[in-house]
Amino acid sequence: MIEGLVALYIFSLAAFTGYEVISKVPVILHTPLMSGSNFVHGIVLVGAMVTMGHAQGALELTIGFVGVFLAAGNAVGGYVVTDRMLEMFKSSKKENS
Amino acid sequence: MSLLIEVSYFLAALLFIFGLKRMSSPKNARQGIVWAGVGMLIATLATFFYPGLHNYSIMMVAIVSGSIIAWWTGRRVAMTDMPQMIALYNGMGGGAAAAIAALELTRLTKLNNAPTSLEELTQAVSDAALNGVEGITIGVLALAVFGAIIGTVAFSGSLVAFLKLQGIMKGVIRFKGLQAVNAAVFISTIAIGVYLCTQVEVAAGGVITQADFNLTWVAVFFAIALVFGVLMTVPIGGADMPVVISLFNALTGLAVGVEGYVLGNAAMMIAGVVVGSAGTLLTQLMAKAMNRPIANVLFSNFGSGGASQS
């Protein structure tokens, strides 16, 4: 378990990092970046797998199953959609230049 | 947790930040998602070696079915329909974060019967250790409840956004006093969350030894949070949806980060909160690009017949 104050450090530094990473982004990249960050929080899959792995009984297993199913959808769907968007972005860039 | 898993999670967190950084400049945006994808793959594969996990076969069914459906829908959707797909996948992430919290709360209801003897108390503590959380503390419960609210609201809100952009749910539903109803539902959600946190017996060090709430309360809690997500999104028009989806994206990130703390998973904490803050900034930038403050997008339509639509 991560101690309270260490967690606070992690949260603060992560929040600062997220802010810095996005701060100078052109308007055309807003939607792809929203999609990209949508993919990144697909890491919830890891947590869903761990919780489901500890589930006991039908109810817990069902909730765990739903969690893993949804998380897998978030990760895979987020990746596919972002990749397609950035692909289009790249090709349209070539045509312009 | 073995060192290999810890290192994999650390690598994943680094790759996510690196990938997002790449994605925010037009030149090499495409590489960014690939880097982040590699991070996700490493973290997921490492989790299969997590000690003490069960239910592998059903877990594989969940992963494979979720992946195939998402891959198939993501591949065949038209480019113009991308925003609602982001909303859908984002809602799934929020739902997953909420499911993690729901499972933790369900586990806590097992401590419903007061341990009358020392053996029962030790049994309860070892049960908690077996469940992967070494004695849920009151602070962890409070954060789990907080993450549950955000995740659930992001889930139902994103689904409404998806239905609206997809054209399944048509028009903008508004009625007089909607703002008051929303406020009431929001306050009840918070109130039940606080109630859950107070209905526990706490031993030294904040470790919960007894929970006085049952499954019904947990179900009611999630149901009301679901309703709030729907009510919050229903009055918002289609043109404003991208901003709202971005907001739900940030909320899901925050929920994932918070549930990461509950599970003691640093990769989830870092990735979640990075998305939470990046998403918040992105929401502001998008609203600015549309020349509308966020408060205007969220609240101007409530109750009073949407002058902003013109």
UniProtKB/TrEMBL annotation, chain A:
Question: NAD(P) transhydrogenase alpha subunit C-terminal domain: which residues?
Answer: 8-90
In the record, which residues are listed under signal peptide? none
E.C. numbers: 7.1.1.1
Q: Where's it mainly located?
A: membrane
Q: Name one GO biological process term.
A: NADPH regeneration
A GO molecular function annotation here is: NADP binding
One Pfam family it belongs to: PNTB_4TM
Protein location: Cell inner membrane
Q: Which PANTHER family match?
A: NAD(P) TRANSHYDROGENASE, PROTON-TRANSLOCATING NAD(P)(+) TRANSHYDROGENASE
What is the recorded name of this protein?
proton-translocating NAD(P)(+) transhydrogenase
> Per the UniProt entry, what species is this protein from, by scientific name?
Saccharophagus degradans
